Amino acid sequence: MKILRDTWLIFQRNLQLMLRSPMWVVLGVAQPVVYLLLFAPLLKPALATMGAHSQAEAYRIYVPGMLVALALAGGLYAGFDLLQELAAGIVERARVTPVSRLALLLGRAFRDVVVLVVQAAIIIVLSLLFGLTVGIPNLLIGYAILALINLTSASFSYGIAMKIKKPAVLGQLINNVAQPLMLLSGTLLPIALAPLWLRDTANGNPFNWAVTGMRELFTGNPDHSAVWKSFAMLGALAVIVIAWSGRKFAKSVR
Question: How far apart are CA 52 and CA 147, in angstroms?
C-alpha cells in the first residue's frame, strides 16, 4: 500500500507541474497534427495496396501508426525532464524522504501516460473531421496499448537518464534507439511495403505488433491475434524495463 500511496503523491506533484505549463502538451502534439494534415493525404496512393481506396481508409491505416509513434517518442524523450530535476537538486532532496524509490519512477511515468491520453484524444478528434471512424470499445483497447508503450519507453528513458546524466549524450542515445524502432514498427509507413528480410526482422519488434494491433482495432477487428500479441509482448517488456529502471532509481537515491 505504501508504494501505491507514494506513487499517487509523486504523480499528483508532477501532474500539477505539468498543468502549470499546458503549452508543453500542445507543443508535443503540434508535429503529429502537421503530419496529420499535410503528410497523410500524400500517402493515399501508397496505402492503396493495403486496401485504402478512400481518404477515410487511408487515415484508418495512418492514424494508428502515428499514435504509436507519439507514444513511443513521447516516452523516450521524457528523460530530459528528469535531467532538469537532477540539475536542480530536486531528485537529490528525495534522499531525506521516506518515499519509495520505485514510486519516484512510476509517479513520473503515469504522468506521462496522462499527457499521452490527452494528446491522442486531440489527434483522434481532428481525424474524425477527415472521415476516420472507430468504435469506442476498440478505441479504449487501443488506449491501453498506447499506455503500455508510453509506460515502457518513459521508464527506459528515465533509467538511461539516471545513468548518463548528460543531456547531449542522452539525446544521441535516444535518437539511435528511436529511429530503428520507428522504422521496424511501421509507424509512419506500413512495414508490409518493406522487403521480406525487413519484415522478418520487424516480427521481433513488440512495437510492430502494437501498430498492427492498433490498425486492426481501428478497422473493427478486436479479435485479431495482433491485439493480444501486443498486450503479451508489451506487458512483458514493461515489467522488465520498470524493474531495471526502478533499480537505477534505488541506487541513485539512497
Answer: 27
